[in-house]
Amino acid sequence: MSEPLDPAGEAAAVDLAGEARRLDAADALAPLRERFVLDDVTYLDGNSLGALPAHVPARVDDVVRRQWGELRIRSWEESGWWTAPERIGDRIAPLVGAAAGQIVVGDSTSVNVFKALVAAVRMAREDAGDGGEGGGAVRDEILVDATTFPTDGYIAESAARMTGCALRAVTPAEVPGALGDRTAAVLLNHVDYRTGRLHDLPGLTRAVHACGAYAVWDLCHSAGALPVGLDEHGVDLAVGCTYKYLNGGPGSPAYLYVRRDLQPRFDSPLPGWNSHAEPFGMRSAYAPASGAVRGRVGTPDILSLLALEAALDVWDADGVSVAAVRAKSLALTDFFLRCVGAYVPAGRVESVTPAAHAERGSQVALRCDDAGEVMKRLVESGVVGDFRAPDVLRFGFTPLYVGFADVERAARVLARTLG
């Protein structure tokens, strides 16, 4: 049995619990919680897997029983299956600051990183005339975020081998100084998956463009939690998953953004029949389709795709905007840090998430010597976050369904777990 807070901590708990109730009562997004399947568990792991929107099971049941069970193959046309990747891409577009016609949904994040990175290198070399007579320097280097989620690094290494490029791992802060006339593409994460640090997408994109290279951004930990501004900031290519803050479900398909003016030049390393200009012409020679369709490869995963489409309905509610979500996200993470500071014994944990709003995503990462065991006990006590080796406790805050009372309880249980 864990020990209670000391008297000073108990007094702080009363004050902060009361403040949490007042904040929840004033929260315009609070009613959205009822749109999700939740229980008494304090769920702070939406940065790994978002909660289930309550209406999704019925929609999936219709897809399985009626669209597949009754209409069968007719659903490719009559139920809109064939156009789902672009249709759902257009629904994600406003959440990442993009106009319609630039996002296609399908495949995994890893596959889309590969498509985007290889296509970026090909465009950079085309710009430079392959370094031949009359051309510029050979574009034979890829920069990758040294702190990236491992799969992005694996994909970047493979793309570098495939394109004959050297691969350099640098931190986002080091990117401006590492760029040069040999740089072809730069792969960066908008939010660091381990620390929750928000990187400077506008500034780094400008720096990449200034040296004549292409920027590829991974939005897995930012889309649905904060403004991205893909069009506004001239991002070339971007990818992201949909099962975190977009709540699309386990393994829901990822998406690929190709800026409109680059679409005619987007040369996918994975040309498939779905991206062919005449997909049912069954031509032996490949001819790419126009527009974002070029990002498609094979037959879409319809069941997961349409579950995601249903999940996105949550964003259609009155008062829901990325700006409102961002404001609440910052308020939640600020409040959590306050509660941790008030409840947790001094020196027991250390926040590795930046305090500055401009540098913070929608999670708080706390360094703790015995983090793996601590998180296990937190989960047993009904507070679900996750652990990242070797010593990080991660807590993700999804403003659509996380409230201030959740935040206060999580910090209080953490303090008691730490003793």
Task: Summarize the topology.
Layout: H1 7-26, E1 42-43, H2 56-71, H3 75-78, H4 84-92, E2 103-105, H5 109-127, E3 141-145, H6 150-163, E4 166-170, H7 175-178, E5 183-189, H8 201-210, E6 214-218, E7 237-240, E8 255-258, H9 302-311, H10 322-343, E9 350-351, E10 363-367, H11 371-380, E11 383-384, E12 386-388, E13 392-396, H12 404-418
Parallel strand pairs: 1-11, 3-4, 3-5, 5-6, 6-7
Antiparallel strand pairs: 2-8, 7-8, 9-10, 10-13, 12-13
Helix pairs in contact: 1-12, 2-9, 4-9, 5-6, 10-12
Can you characterise this structure?
The protein is an alpha/beta fold and 419 residues long. Helices cover 37% and strands 12% of the residues. The protein has helices at residues 7-26, 56-71, 75-78, 84-92, 109-127, 150-163, 175-178, 201-210, 302-311, 322-343, 371-380, 404-418; strands spanning 42-43, 103-105, 141-145, 166-170, 183-189, 214-218, 237-240, 255-258, 350-351, 363-367, 383-384, 386-388, 392-396. A seven-stranded mixed β-sheet has the order 2-8-7-6-5-3-4, sandwiched between helices. It has a four-stranded antiparallel β-sheet with strand order 9-10-13-12. Helix 6 links the parallel strand 3 and strand 4. Helix 2 runs antiparallel to helix 9 (302-311). The radius of gyration is 23 Å and the shape is globular. The chain starts with 6 loop residues before the first helix and ends with a helix. The model is unreliable at 1-5 (pLDDT under 50).
Count of alpha and pi helical runs = 12
Rg from C-alpha positions?
23 Å
Uncertain runs: 1-5
Question: If strands are numbered along the chain, what order do they take across the biggest sheet?
Answer: 2-8-7-6-5-3-4
